[in-house]
Specification:
There is one protein chain. With 61 residues, the chain is mostly helical. Helices cover 54% and strands 0% of the residues. The chain is built from three helices and no strands. The radius of gyration is 12 Å and the shape is globular. The relative contact order is 0.24. InterPro entries: UROD/MetE-like_sf.
């Protein structure tokens, strides 16, 4: 979650890609390590960017 708070969109997406690539083959659910309960839990632009990336990139083909 600290990534969402402290990093750029590009850094957050790069980490998401690293995690998805590391779990290739399936059997996982992509999520955060904590609930996002307040605006201070992460920058909205980072959360949106990662969610959009995961929805497109994280599909099994």
């Amino acid at each position: 979650m600290n990534l969402y708070q402290e990093r750029t969109k590009e850094e957050c997406i790069a980490k998401a890609k690293e995690l998805i690539d590391g779990m290739a083959g399936g059997g996982y659910i992509f999520g955060t390590d904590k609930e996002l309960l307040a605006p201070a839990d992460g920058k909205a632009e980072n959360i949106i960017a990662v969610n959009e990336f995961v929805m497109e990139y994280g599909i099994y083909k």
